[in-house]
Amino acid sequence: MTEHVNTGFERGTDGPKVILAGVDGSESSLRAAAYAAGLARRQHALLALVYVQPVMPAGASLGAPVADTTGEIAEGLVTEIREAAERVKGVYDVRWQFHTFRGDPYAGLVSAADELKADAVVVGASEQAGHRIVGSVAVRLVKAGRWPVTVVP
Fold this sequence. Notes:
- The chain is α/β, with parallel strands linked by helices.
- It contains 5 helices and 5 strands; from the N terminus they run E-H-E-H-E-H-E-H-H-E.
- It has one domain (18-152): 3-Layer(aba) Sandwich (Rossmann fold).
- The protein has a 5-stranded parallel beta sheet, sandwiched between helices.
- The protein is globular, with a radius of gyration of 17 Å.
């Protein structure tokens, strides 16, 4: 008779340990980050804030200025998040980290969720009209069916 030893990790059994929130500076993404922070606080989970830095197509001749701009967005988000964290320190005790991934938003968030072993993903609803037809990043994440996804309006 052999004894079974469970050496694997099963998601969702003890509540989330890592809650990932996608942020891009839009109002809906900042609301998603605030919502995710509340979840992380209540669940005693790590809040992983993720900005996916866009990669321009090879044909784009803009080069460095575009990379500089997206880098500035990431730096601005970090500054904004740090300031918000300082304002609520002592009221909300949330462990958080900021990560930057490169790629298109969907692929970047999937990579981030996999690499960070996210138990849940929180994103803002798309503010672009065309996404109602084609499908937003949020809809694609839900359809992937790999983690619970919360879409914040």
